[in-house]
């Protein structure tokens, strides 16, 4: 078997790691750029258009909620290649719509684009989440998730840097995003469609480095939408999934609040720089969480609890820090925003650190994915997770669209604190060291088979040293 492992390398189209990288690149070229655009405030428009962007995003995430929840129907029938490809289509529409809005001030195209993107984003994000957990072994899950976070962060960072350079080069057009920014973002979005269609392959063709396949996919051709719907309902009957619904709902609530506050308090070139800091923060944090979540020397339960503790420090520190910053600035949404510049010093510096910390809030999905290794079940988990996250985003943008005082939107603080407590409870009581050998459709990686064999040999040796006759009797009875 070592010879086989030496032959099978990362740079194979059918490698799980390479397929995850392809998916990660697509995320960097689609949602990564969406994040950079959102960081400009109001979807890249003027600060005065915050209301339009909040309305668009609220409808976007409402549709996304439904498309995410039913994404497993596509994943388990047409597969990840075409589900991911269809998922990229909405992003160029969204970019083009806000470019159109910046030129004409007409709202119909952004609203329509929000509906289209809401439909496709549920498919794209669910596919990405599914690939990261279904293609990885239990000791690689943190790595696969981190690669997606890092590539999405790199895409958003490079896009934000491009936007900052292009905006800063035209100080005479303060408050307006140049057409060159939209054109660049649009071209990268379109590229993601071709990457997804050209390089994603069917999961039944995936081969691990040890030569094993992922799972048995023989029944996929027989799968129907009705069967998938029943499967989704069966997953929702699991109390462990239901108890995570509030956690999923609150996962990305800060994004809606931060984009509006960013647009209100800072000018356009400073918003682009804040977008860079937000995106950059995701990269080192992913490197920090990766060895924690994949450390084979610790039990999975302990890894999860340590990850939740680290996340709690970042999450609670970010909220408390921002509340302090807002209290010191006494911001009133009824007034015209101060439009701070990055050169103003402390008003920018303090918020930049807090804003960057919010970009680091990713670990929730690892708890949900620890409950199964079955690709079919994980597809349903991925859809439920992404759909419920979108429901939370729809609510936060809907609330923000009526322009309440900023401090009233900090209900999200309490929801995230509750979510951390729920994750800790579930990790403590329900996460086991492994789910292998428990699900009939999962092909167990050789490293885990070897571990079981080694542990069995050790146990037999210990028993034999104490009572050789009992071991012989057991062996004969087994025969």
Describe the fold and architecture:
It is a multi-pass membrane protein. The chain crosses the membrane at residues 21-40, 52-75, 82-102, 108-131, 143-167, 179-201, 241-261, 273-293, 305-326, 346-368, 380-398, 410-428. The protein has 479 residues and is mostly helical. The protein has a single domain, classed as MFS general substrate transporter like domains (Growth Hormone, Chain: A, Up-down Bundle). It is built from 22 helices and no strands. The chain has helices at residues 2-7, 16-29, 31-39, 50-69, 71-75, 80-88, 90-104, 108-134, 141-168, 179-199, 225-236, 239-242, 245-250, 253-265, 268-294, 300-329, 346-358, 364-369, 375-401, 411-430, 446-466, 468-478. α6 (80-88) packs antiparallel against α8. The longest helix has 30 residues, at 300-329. It is globular. It starts with a helix and ends with a helix.
Q: Percentage of helical residues?
A: over 70%
Describe the largest sheet: none
What is the number of helical segments per DSSP (H or I, 4+ residues)? 22
Count of discrete domains: 1
Distance between the termini: 28 Å
Protein name: MFS general substrate transporter
Transmembrane segments: 21-40, 52-75, 82-102, 108-131, 143-167, 179-201, 241-261, 273-293, 305-326, 346-368, 380-398, 410-428
Keywords: Membrane, Transmembrane, Transmembrane helix
Subcellular location: Membrane
Key words describing this protein structure:
disordered C terminus; disordered N terminus; 0% strand; globular; 72% helix
Question: Could you write a compact summary of the structure shown?
Answer:
This protein has 479 residues and is mainly α.
């Amino acid at each position: 078997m070592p010879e086989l492992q030496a032959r099978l390398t990362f740079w194979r189209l059918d490698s799980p790691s390479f397929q995850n990288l392809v998916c990660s690149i697509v995320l960097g070229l689609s949602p990564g750029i969406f994040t950079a655009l959102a960081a400009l405030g109001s979807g890249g428009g003027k600060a005065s258009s915050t209301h339009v962007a909040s309305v668009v995003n609220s409808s976007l995430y409402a549709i996304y909620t439904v498309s995410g929840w039913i994404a497993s129907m596509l994943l388990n029938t047409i597969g990840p290649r075409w589900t991911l490809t269809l998922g990229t289509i909405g992003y160029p529409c969204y970019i083009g719509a806000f470019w159109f809005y910046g030129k004409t001030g007409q709202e119909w195209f952004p609203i329509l684009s929000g509906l289209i993107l809401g439909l496709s984003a549920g498919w794209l994000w669910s596919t990405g989440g599914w690939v990261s957990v279904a293609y990885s072994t239990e000791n690689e899950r943190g790595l696969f998730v981190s690669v997606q976070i890092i590539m999405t962060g790199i895409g958003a960072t490079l896009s934000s840097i491009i936007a900052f350079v292009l905006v800063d080069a035209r100080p005479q057009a303060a408050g307006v995003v140049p057409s060159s920014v939209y054109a660049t973002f649009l071209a990268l979005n379109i590229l993601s469609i071709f990457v997804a269609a050209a390089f994603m392959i069917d999961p039944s063709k995936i081969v691990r480095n040890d030569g094993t396949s992922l799972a048995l996919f023989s029944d996929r051709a027989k799968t129907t939408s009705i069967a998938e719907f029943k499967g989704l309902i069966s997953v929702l009957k699991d109390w462990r999934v239901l108890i995570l619904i509030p956690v999923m709902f609150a996962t990305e609530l800060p994004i809606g609040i931060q984009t509006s506050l960013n647009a209100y308090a800072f000018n356009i070139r400073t918003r682009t720089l804040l977008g860079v800091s937000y995106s950059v923060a995701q990269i080192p944090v992913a490197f920090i969480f990766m060895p924690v979540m994949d450390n084979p020397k610790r039990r999975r339960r302990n890894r999860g609890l340590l990850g939740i503790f680290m996340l709690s420090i970042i999450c609670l520190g970010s909220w408390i820090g921002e509340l302090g910053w807002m209290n010191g600035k006494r911001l009133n949404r009824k007034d015209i925003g101060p439009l701070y510049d990055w050169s103003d010093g402390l008003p920018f510096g303090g918020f930049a650190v807090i804003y960057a910390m919010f970009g680091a809030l990713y670990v929730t999905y690892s708890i949900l994915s620890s409950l199964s290794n079955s690709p079919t079940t994980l597809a349903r988990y991925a859809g439920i997770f992404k759909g419920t996250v979108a429901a939370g985003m729809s609510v936060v943008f809907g609330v923000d669209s009526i322009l309440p005082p900023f401090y009233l939107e900090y209900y999200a603080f309490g929801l995230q604190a509750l979510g951390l407590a729920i994750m800790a409870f579930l990790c403590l009581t329900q996460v086991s060291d492994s789910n292998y050998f428990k699900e009939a459709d999962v092909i167990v990686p050789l490293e885990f088979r070897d571990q079981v064999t080694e542990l069995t040999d050790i146990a037999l040796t210990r028993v034999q040293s104490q009572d050789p006759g009992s071991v012989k009797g057991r062996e004969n009875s087994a025969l």
